[in-house]
Amino acid sequence: MTTKKTYERPIIKKLESNMPNKFGMRTIYEPMSHVEGKAVKDLIQQYGSPLFVISEKKIRKTFRAARQAFETRYPRVQFAWSYKTNYLDAVCKIYHQEGSWAEVVSGFEYDKAIRNGVEGSKIIFNGPDKSETDLRKAVTNNSLIHIDHLDELYMLQDIARNSGKRPRVAIRVNMDTGIHPIWDRFGFNYENGQAWDALNKIMFSGLMELVGLHTHIGTFMLSPAAYGVAASKLAHLAQSVLMKYNHEIKYIDMGGGFASKNTLKGSYLPGTDISPSIDDFAEAITSALMNSDYRPKNPPLLIIESGRALIDDAAWLLGSVLANKRLSDGRRSTILDVGVNILFTAFWYDHKITPAQSFTSYTEDTALYGPLCMNIDVVRESINMPLLNKGDQVVIHHVGAYNMTQWMQFITLRPKVVLIDEKEKVHVVRNNESLDTLIALENVPDHLVNFEL
Amino acid sequence: MKVKSNIAVSDNGFVFNPGSGESYTVNPVGLEMLNLLRKGHSHSEIIAAIQANYVADAAMIERDLLDFLEMMRQYRLMQHDDE
What we know:
heterodimer; A: alpha/beta; Lyase, Ornithine Decarboxylase, Chain A, domain 1; TIM Barrel; 2 domains; nine-stranded mixed β-sheet; eight-stranded parallel barrel; 22 strands; 23% strand; globular; B: alpha+beta; Arc Repressor Mutant, subunit A; 20% strand
């Protein structure tokens, strides 16, 4: 009896004789059958598809490398975990175990950090939306409040006056660091004197304790030099406060925005090749601070609020092929059970996607679509993929940042998130949604309960 | 429709269209289908032949065969039966 051969769907591919593209990257023909020692097919079988998988080992390793990059260059460094990047409790607690404070941008995130056991004095409260209730709570807990606008500054003064407490505050400063767009919608501008005016208001009022200066110059920054400019400008402001009021600024908070290894849409080269390393950012920031004209008795604490660069590479999204079809122009399209509803970053990145099972060297240019009945649901507009069949599984890389916070409950339900710990044990850290999860929030008025069709 | 009679196909899956000067590659399953098409086999005969050699069900092979024929048509490697 003869053994039957493994079937692969037939393809015919035109041979192009154009000049080779010097930016063209070789497609990596390596399946990824395992994630952190666990077989993709077993994970999907047990926990369903799609499935987010987070590696505790990778989180800790990346964090420790980042901390080392800064601590070897500067004497006093403190990381604060950016909750908005990924605020799953299990994830936050890994960073808190590693020594990170919490950086939050809403009352909801603030309450989450408190619930996670973070001391109020180790919570940095950023953002333009802090209600009076939020601010009172933060003042009572002695948290670090980063003032975003004058209305907030005046509200804080009233709270201080009425409560008799001295809020610990910093201002957020926006500035021209040579990159565009300038993020001038948050905080006070450096160049036009708004920041200096706000500092004078705080110092003159005598109601608040000015402890820090904060900036956050952008997102997915590819230029470490811009951070050097920002650090110099904050140090200059600190020295101005020292000269005028004989008051030492205790910390400089450089925010985050460091690029991860993802590839931005439109980029010729992959993020793994062009994104600066964490050492590049550390070198730019610490050199600027050490060489600045700020001369306090004690060097200010350097706070880093990096989120994306610390967690993006520590999570994968597993999915399955629902169907293949041919588009009207002859292009292949593959429909996955992963869409922009749970992979929000597909709007910004060309995510690296790897089949989870072995395949041959034959490939086809393919459009990868999600499962939503919406035209916007495009995971990759064009990617050279091996020949995937219905039921095949794929691994989407670098999904740890923003997807598990910006995901949408749209058309379908959100899947489970599992964490693989350092001993390769799998834990469900967020369950999948069900119809019950959603209807628990809804209420139908009595007159709409019954109907006949 | 049938495969154009002047198309050259090598044993290792290299396809040449002397009419346009363009070249193509096909994978092993594609090569078997192409050779059976050139010999004038019907779709059902091709499906049965592929199923005899490979681990695949008839519905999947039929779907893939139709897709393969569509690509052949788009690449102008097919002609009408009366041409």
